[in-house]
Amino acid sequence: SLVVLFGATAGAYGAKLGSDERELILLVWQVVDLHSKKVGTLHKSLVKADNLDLSDQCREVSGLTPEGLGKAEPLDRVLQQFSQLVSSDLKVLGRSSYTLCSDGQLLIRQVLHPETSKKNFLLSDCFYSFYDLRKEFHICYPSSAAVKDQTIKTMAEYLGLGTDETEEDFGVWQVKTMVAVIFSMLSEGCNHIFTEPETVKYKYETGPCSKSETVDSETVIRARGLPWQSSDQDIARFFKGLNIAKGGVALCLNAQGRRNGEALVRFVNSEQRDLALERHKHHMGSRYIEVYKATGEEFLKIAGGTSNEVAQFLSKENQVIIRMRGLPFTATQDDVLGFLGPECPVTGGKEGLLFVKYPDGRPTGDAFVLFSCEEYAQNALKKHKEILGKRYIELFRSTAAEVQQVVLNRYMSTPLIPTLPTPLIPVIPPPYTIATGSIRDCVRLRGLPYTAGIDDILEFMGDATADIKPHGVHMVLNQQGRPSGDAFIQMKSADKAFMVAQKCHKKMMKDRYVEVFQCSGEEMNFVLMGGTLNRSGLSPPPCKLPCLSPPAYAAFQTAAVIPAEAALYQPQALLPTTRTPQASAAAPPAVTYYPAQAAQLYMNYTAYYPSPPVSPTTVGYIAAPPGAVAAAATATHTPLLPQPGALVRMQGLPYNTGMKEILSFFQGYQYAPDDYNGLIQLSDQARSVLQAPKEWVCL
């Protein structure tokens, strides 16, 4: 038997059904006995939605009103009545089993499954298997329109069924016409047999993915805006009703190995992928999720792996994976098993543990654990932030794709300091320092457009540009190295700073107004070193907070000072991109120029330990006098780094390590002669900044 089912939501109708997340408001159904060609009673049931605000299209097409729906039963009660009435009709017809049959896939996949998932109640088994009448019709009548162009009306017109849509209530006509179409397909001329129903997966299956596997780009999407703590099961729930391929959820990680709110999802076919794209800006909790097309190459880059160790670890299918972070570097398998305890046994004991290591074999402090059921995994998650040794351990849900990304060192092999580029122009300026006193000779710009550069700021300040100190413009970047919307400017005097604040406050830059406040050099330094400045006063930078890891940053009052030559080797991510102004052909070539009164450039310690924000230097934004061009062109200088890659970074050093121990460690290797401090000529304050973290930068 078939149960012919039709439904409507409070929003879009037809091809866009379910694309706007609107709730179901109508169900109409009728049982059809395919052998005796008899039908049961036709049932129509209104559904009370949480939001009774009907769209104009819904009102026009269905004729329903909020008042009428307000008297209806909620969806869970209507589905209970559906099961009871179908069972009763089957008994009358002498049948016991049935399969749903709907007009297309949208009602089942895009409406019923997502809505019941959000409302946290389960659909009965009958909703996981159904016939798509449009596909069955096209199989029976190959010369008819393509499946995507079929509607109930076009099928009836193709068969010449004389039905009038206006004579019946909305939903009743649709079900009666669908039944008539089915009977036509069962006639002697066609003898159509319903054999292969559409299926909806009960749950998402985890599993590994090989880099040699072929992934069709027409089956992959990118989901963006996910909560950072969301797991593969949460993403599968967001796409409830659609069939995700086995191991088809790959969570993307950032450069530090943490989830960045994006995931690549692979579906079983292009039809499921197209339905997933219709869920663009649907909600996961209070967040809307963006859904875009992606490629198979992108999916393999994230999810693909070839490590035998990973393949063996993930060979046990249908396991719950938990990621542990912050383990002591000396932790053993027995330590981890003891930490988890008997209430959450690990699948296979020690074989269910996978420690993550750097390419050189050193432990990273991360591990993955397998559990055979959800109960054991939940018990393990209750140990989040409990202590092992002297460290608290973080526990999160994880995925097979995340295991492959982390263990295969997709991010861990990338150095924090990239290969240094060729120097721009080797010019060493005289000493220059940022004032740190309480004189209010600085201004803070807040609310800058994120696309604004230093040239935009100079244009914004107009005539006051002449009163800016050399290298006095400091852009504040966020943790991702992008503009934060803030900037600090050092003026030549407190009076000049006051005049700028009065003149430019709430002046427009592009399409935004910018707030301009007068402040002191001390306040500016607090923000540039990672602190915050607000109406309630100063909040110290993270280097002065006890919770920062590594925890032992020495207190300091000024930024670390480095030679200008070293500043020329800064990673390009820290240097703003100059937009070339329109100039005449006779304009002299641009060179990096530091005025005579400019002393030394400031490199924030964040260039060596990635903690926001940073304040890049204004290289390239100060015009060079004609004489300086000739001097720079004829000057001879040997750069401190004769070739890229001469800089190495040491991590994991004891906190009391000194210069003697480092030189002894590199015994037998030739380092930069006559300069054991390497690239950076350390002052006492700079030395305290660089020595406090557990790392050194050496030549």
Overview of this structure, please?
With 699 residues, the chain is α+β, with helices and mostly antiparallel strands. Among the domains are: 2-199, Nucleotidyltransferase, domain 5 (2-Layer Sandwich), CATH 3.30.420.10; 217-303, 2-Layer Sandwich (Alpha-Beta Plaits), CATH 3.30.70.330; 308-412, RRM (RNA recognition motif) domain (Alpha-Beta Plaits), CATH 3.30.70; 442-531, Alpha-Beta Plaits (2-Layer Sandwich). The chain starts with a strand and ends with a strand.
Please state the overall shape, judged from the principal axes of the Cα atoms.
globular
- Radius of gyration, rounded? 33 Å
Low-confidence stretches: 410-433, 539-630, 632-642, 674-698
CATH topology annotation of the domain at 2-199 = Nucleotidyltransferase, domain 5
- Overall mean pLDDT: 77
What is the first-to-last residue Cα distance?
Answer: 79 Å
